[in-house]
Design goal:
33% helix; Glutaredoxin; two-stranded antiparallel sheet; alpha/beta
Amino acid sequence: MRAALFAALVLLALPGGAQPLKDWTGGRTPALELEDANGKPHRLAQYAGKVVLVNFWATWCTPCRDEMPSMEALRAQLQDRPFVILAVNVGEGARATSAFGDKMRLNFPLLVDRDTKTTRSWGTRILPASFVVGPDGRIRYSHFGALDWSDPQVKGAIERLLP
């Protein structure tokens, strides 16, 4: 937990501005099977045929909180398209996750990875960490650190993946 906090603090010191999503070269897509803050199960496989933004975050992570409004804006802009956001809370419980989602007015699933097993399987060591999964279930892009998801370059990369 200390390492993640340190990494989040380091990210705060980095210069701002949207950076492009990076092409994924890290291998196969790990499994993702978690419940959301309301207890509903979600499996990455159930979203086959859609572009999925998998975002790992925590309520204590300032860069994570900062990027959430732009993620919600992207979700709203693409709501009629085959696109979904799965935001994975790292190490916190359903109550904290749900309260955060309500406060931020987020309308995408907030999954709970209390034991951080899924987070580790995705190789996430810095928060926030994001992966864009294509309709074929393969990770196409990644980004470590906060990102403005409403940036035209970022949105364009996601739109090019949409079927």
